[in-house]
Design goal:
Oligomer: single chain
Helix content: over 70%
Order of helices and strands: HHHHHH
Largest sheet: none
Distance between the termini: 26 Å
Number of helices: 6
Mean pLDDT: 87
Strand content: under 5%
Shape: globular
Radius of gyration: 14 Å
Low-confidence stretches: none
């Protein structure tokens, strides 16, 4: 996993992404992934992330994460992986 992360960081760096932007992108994807795993339950996700639920909610607002796609994905139960792809695409649009 370390090699994959290093490769991703190198791609981001070569693409001109600054540290703050990369950090925001990572935080957003990480949080959305854990939220999806917890079926959108923010209290359980905060516990898994090792933060207080209010901190998670504040971070979601700060990063301007769109939870609507996540909520729809949790309700619909699409084939494995597709919901996360939609959430990740939305996170990238917001971060762009």
């Amino acid at each position: 996993m370390k090699a994959q992360l290093e490769s991703l960081v190198l791609q981001m760096h070569r693409g001109g992404m600054r540290f703050e932007e990369a950090l925001r992108e990572f935080q957003g994807v990480f949080i959305l992934t854990v939220l999806r795993e917890q079926k959108g339950n923010q209290c359980r996700a905060a516990e898994k992330l090792g933060m207080h639920r209010n901190t998670l909610r504040r971070t979601i607002r700060t990063l301007q994460l769109d939870l609507q796609a996540l909520r729809e994905a949790v309700r619909r139960r699409p084939p494995r992986g597709q919901a996360l792809d939609a959430v990740t695409r939305r996170a990238k649009q917001v971060g762009a």
